[in-house]
Structure prediction request, 259 residues.
Amino acid sequence: MKKALTFLLILLLTAALCLPAFAQQEDRMLTLVNPWNTIPANWKVDLIHIGSGHRVDRICYDDLMAMLEACRAEGLSPVVRSSYRTQEQQEQLYANKVRQWKATGLSDEEARKTAATIVAPPGTSEHQMGWAVDIVDESYRTLDEKQAETAAQQWLMAHSWEYGFILRYPVDKSAVTGIIYEPWHYRYVGRDNAKAIQESGLCLEEYLEMQARQQTMLGQVKAALESFFEDASRGIFRLMTRKDGGLGTVLDANDVMKP
Ligand SMILES: [Zn+2]
Prediction:
């Protein structure tokens, strides 16, 4: 009897100790960078050249190369038009876009606001992470919605997730992402995440929100289980340390739940 109780006690304690493992770790691959979330201050890039003066972070190099190769194997011609950008390059791009809008007669504030939906203000661009690329079809290099109709883009939009990339600014998600529909901007999130996001049909912001909700629910279940294990362990310990060794005692609810 005592052996069985000891075993049960150890089992419960082990289960309680293992519970935190259920909690999902924060996934660096899903780091959110958007108009409301700047690149983390401690963000480090490990750049590698991919040709034509472009660089990306080493983390996505193999998958990017594999994706482009697979696309070319289909007889298509994807061209990387933009990749890693420094803070200075992003500042330049943003300033140019603000200037263009001001030239149309918008006020400084309006021009900045409108420009921000097209070129991310410095510090909020995924290109600065080194994990994003703009890819166009060789036959049509313009960054507009018609890009979606090109053969290379059609292939990329259907298959990028298989290589860990998501089309980051999908159609009809501008209100959530804060960025216009961009059928050319691919962000690396790793193959598992890309598959899950693809299956969910959500954009990154929505997907992270869903995860946060699940995390809250998991936390509540975990707290309830921990409380149960604590009560049960205490009850069993009490039974084990009785002078009569717990033999012949009745395991009623009061013994177990209210030591
Ligand atoms: Zn881009």
Q: What stands out?
A: The mean pLDDT is 89.
